[in-house]
Design a protein that fits this description.
The protein is of the alpha/beta class. It folds into three domains: 115 residues, NAD(P)-binding Rossmann-like Domain (Rossmann fold, 3-Layer(aba) Sandwich), CATH 3.40.50.720; 159 residues, NAD(P)-binding Rossmann-like Domain (Rossmann fold); 89 residues, Erythronate-4-phosphate dehydrogenase, dimerisation domain (Ribosomal Protein S8, Chain: A, domain 1, 2-Layer Sandwich). The chain is built from 16 helices and 14 strands. α5 crosses α13. The protein starts with a strand and ends with a strand.
């Protein structure tokens, strides 16, 4: 079988070569002519998969190595008998760790303590539920909003959006939808920002069009928000230069780009593809994940006695994931000629360095059982006393 795959899916050629001939291409370079003779198409979120791309092709199976699927016309695939798979949950832990790293970085920058602060989580699926767990471990008061889950479960823990406006932080973790009872397109609009408490913090690592950038800029310019963290941008890969200059943390849609998450997504679509064609899956995730660069971090008792827990957590997380480095690299977009900025954004994603998840690192705290241990374990580290 002939397979066309986005070159940004790690190990996709090594893995899928067990079932066919793999050609790697850039996600924005996947064209109707290129896929015409393909049997399998493997994409990420930047490739629009619809009739314009697939009409007249012999593609029998499409998969996206992402949790989001709004870039795929699934009705078209169904109507034309084309199999489909995605990778729900594969990068959920990665995004949740990104939020933890951002929270700790802001705490250090703005000299506040996260414990006791409130955070509203909009969207409590695979990602939002993990953000909830980690923020709870940090001692934050969590308020949840997810209208579909509220209807499905009847659980009163899911609160109306209005109840999140008094939170110190609001973070978005929804899919991008324009239709149905709960559209999320421009969910964070002018009224949303006007309703937030003065001096609140706004995060979006879901989809860029879930917030209205014009409304966000107005809220920032008015001094309503204390800080903004953006991993997604309404017009990406062409990023609004004013926003890029003025947000506290800026990253190029890589919150879910942990190496573990990307390999997990690749394996999920590989297994789905094998199942679709009735083939035996020869590979699993352990065939591709290397040993971590930081297998162990020892925290000396002296630090615990004399330093704030959150400062120690910040410094520990920074040894595994330096979110400020992603921010620094992102801001270099502003140094590029205007016509080259979109390509620079894509290049940051394509050449993103290996980032391992916290679970691969053991925190050693010799002889002391303290709150720090519980917080480190709660955000995902292995802990040894």
């Amino acid at each position: 079988m002939k397979i066309i795959a986005d070159q940004n899916i790690p190990f996709v050629k090594e893995c899928f070569s067990s079932i066919g001939d793999v050609t790697l291409v850039g996600g924005r370079e996947i064209t109707p002519e290129l896929v015409k003779e393909a049997d399998i198409l493997l994409v990420r979120s930047i490739t629009k998969v619809n009739a314009d791309l697939l009409d007249g092709s012999r593609v029998k199976f499409v998969a996206t190595a992402t949790i989001g699927t709004e870039h795929v016309d699934q009705d078209y695939l169904t109507d034309n008998g084309i199999g489909f798979a995605s990778a729900p949950g594969s990068n959920a832990n990665s995004v949740a760790e990104y939020i933890v790293a951002a929270l700790l970085a802001l705490g250090k920058k703005h000299t506040f303590t996260l414990e006791g602060k409130s955070i509203g989580i909009v969207g409590v699926g695979n990602v939002g539920s993990k953000v909830q767990t980690k923020c709870t471990a940090l001692g934050m008061n969590v308020v949840l909003n997810d209208p579909p889950l509220a209807r499905q479960t009847g659980d009163t823990k899911y609160r109306p959006l209005e109840e999140l406006y008094d939170c110190d932080f609001i973070t978005l973790h929804t899919p991008l939808t324009k239709d149905g009872p709960d559209p999320t397109y421009h969910l964070a609009n002018e009224q949303f920002f006007a309703s937030m408490k003065q001096g609140a913090f706004f995060f979006n690592s879901s989809r860029g069009k879930v917030h209205d950038e014009a409304a966000l800029k107005k809220a920032m310019q008015s001094g309503k928000l204390a800080a903004v963290v953006l991993d997604v941008w309404e017009t990406e890969p062409n990023v609004d230069p004013w926003l890029l200059q003025n947000v506290d943390l800026s990253t190029p849609h890589i919150a879910g780009y942990s190496y573990d998450g990307k390999v997990a997504g690749m394996i999920m679509i590989y297994e789905a593809c094998c199942q679709h064609f009735g083939l035996h899956a020869k590979h699993n995730i352990h065939d591709f994940l290397p040993e971590p660069d930081v297998p162990e971090i020892i925290i000396e008792n002296e630090r615990i006695r004399h330093e704030n827990e959150e400062k120690i957590l910040h410094d520990t997380v920074q040894q595994v994931y330096v979110i400020n480095r992603d921010d620094f690299n992102m801001r270099e977009i502003l140094l590029q000629p205007e016509g080259d900025r979109g390509a620079w954004f894509d290049g940051l994603r394509k050449n993103y360095p290996i980032r391992r998840e916290f679970q691969n690192t053991k925190i050693v705290v010799p002889g002391i059982d303290c709150c720090l241990v519980n917080k480190a374990a709660g955000i995902g580290f292995k802990v040894s006393l």
